Amino acid sequence: MEKTILHCDLNNFYASVEERKDPSLKGKPIAVCGNPELRHGIILAKNQIAKSFGVKTAETIWQAKQKCPGLILLPASYNDYHQASKELNKFI
Predict the structure, then answer these.
(1) Which domain range does residue 48 map to?
(2) How many CB atoms lie within 10 A of CB 29?
(3) pLDDT per residue over 52-64, tens digit each?
């Protein structure tokens, strides 16, 4: 039997899960970020719209907001990402 390797690049995964949870976010620039009060104020993930403004993963929230003043910031929902990942893995 020949071995097949499947590479599935889930760009914007956290942001995509957030859009799936709240469809009203579609078409808006969003970013999942750390907690600035706990000094974890960086971008963890962003959607394509935010990316088009130049928002980058791992940059500070204040830098991202300068590039994209309308950026919607969302806290990370790791349990939701884990569940969505398990759902995806059923197809692999």
Answers:
(1) 13-89
(2) 23
(3) 999 999 999 999 9
